[in-house]
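One such given next:

>
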Amino acid sequence: MYQVSLLLPYKLKGPYGPLVYLQLHSNGLKWRFFGGHFKKGETPLDVVIRETREELNLTLIRPELGEGWTPIELICRLRIPFAGIYLFPMEVDDSFPPEGFEILEGCEGKWWPVKELPDAMSFLDKLLIKIWILRRFVLNQRYIVTPLKCPVLTFDIEEPFHYAGRNNDGRFKQRKYGLNEVVLDLLEHLELAGAKATFFWVASTAKKYPQLIREIVRKGHEVASHGTNHQLASTQSLVQFVKDITLSKEIIEDIVQKKVLGYRAPGWSWPHNKNQRMRFYEALRNAGYIFDSSVLPAAVIGIPGLPGIPYQTNSGIWEFPLPVFGIPLVTKNLNRFAKDGLYTPPRHAWRGSICLPYSGGFFLRCLGVGIFSLILSYHLKKEGYVMTYIHPGELSARDASWIRGLDDRYFNLFERWRVGFRNRRLKAHFFSLLPKHSGCSINEFLQSM
C-alpha cells in the first residue's frame, strides 16, 4: 500500500501571510514536501523523523509532532488508520532554518507564501497545504495543544472493603488481598514502557503497606491523597473534610518523606453545591495541596457542565477532571461558570450535550483495546489532555472472583457484574496500551503547562 509521511515547516506570519518551507526535487523540476516512504516496521512518526535526519540533517523531538494528520482527518477530523498519507505540520520561528543548515537531498529549500505556491507542485500537495492552512490559521485549530502528548495515568490504591463501603466489616478487613503483588507487577510494566503515574493512596492502606508506597516513590512516581479512610467528600462537613485531608497528607508524607501535592475525593464525590466546592478548594490550598482530581463532568454520578480539561480555580488549586466523551450536538458557553467565581475559564473548552466517562478500567473492559485506544488518541489530539484511572482490584482476577461470589448483603447483582465483567482481560488490555501511549503523572503534566 502507498504510504508516505510528510513534514511541513510553517510560519504564522510572513510579509505575504503564512509561509511554508518546501524543497526542490533533485531533478530541479518540482517543489514538494520533505519526507518519504515507509520502511518495514516503521510508524508514520518514525518515517518523518528518519527522513528529516536524512534530508535536512535535523533531529526532531517526538512529543512535539504527535501522530500526524491524514487527508481525511484534515477535512472532517475523522481519524482512519492506514490512510496512506500522514502530514506533520511543524510551527517554526525566524531561526529556521538554523545557521549552517544544509539540504542533503534535493536541490534547495525555500519559503513560499501560501497564497503564491509554485506552479511546479502537485495538485494534491497544494490541496493538503490549503486545507491545513484553513484549519490552522482560519479556524485556529492548532495541532499541538500541550507539550506532553501522552495520557495522565492515575491509580486509586484502596482495598475492596473501601470500595464496598464496609470499613468496619470484619469479613472484608480480615481477608488478605493481592494489592502488593498487583502494584509491584504494575510498577514493572510502567518501567518497561518508560511511563510515570500518580498513585492516590487511602492513608489507612498506606500505613498497612509502607514498603510498597516507598517503592512507588523510589521508582519515580507520584503519590497523592485519596482520603484517610475512603469517606465520601460530599458526605463530610467542612470541619470533617479539613481533618480528613490534613490527616491523610500527614500520614503519607510521614511514610514517604516527601510532599503530597494532590488529592482525589473517593468515588468522585466532589460536592455539587458551588459554595461548598469553593470552601473545599480553599481548604485544600490551606492544607498545602496544589491540585485536585475529584471532578467527573458527567450526569448521574458527576457534575455535568464543568470542563473536562485542566483548569485553575480562583483559590489557586488546579483541577484535573476525568475526561468525558461528548456527543457534539450543542456547544455550551462555559463563561457562565466564571461569573459565579468558581474558576478561571481555560483557553479552550469543548463540551457536547451528552457527556460520558470512558477512561476508567470498567470502560476499558467494555470497549476493548481498539476502541479505547482510538478515543484516547482522538482526545489527545483534540484537547491535548487525557487521564485514565484504574483500581488495583480491577487488575487482580483473584479479588474480583471473590467479590463475585459474595451475596446480596454486600453487592447487588449489578455491582457484582460490574466488578467481574471481562475482568481477566483488563490486565492484558491495559498493559498492551502502555507501549503505544506511555503516560505521565499529574505533576509532570502540570509542570509542562
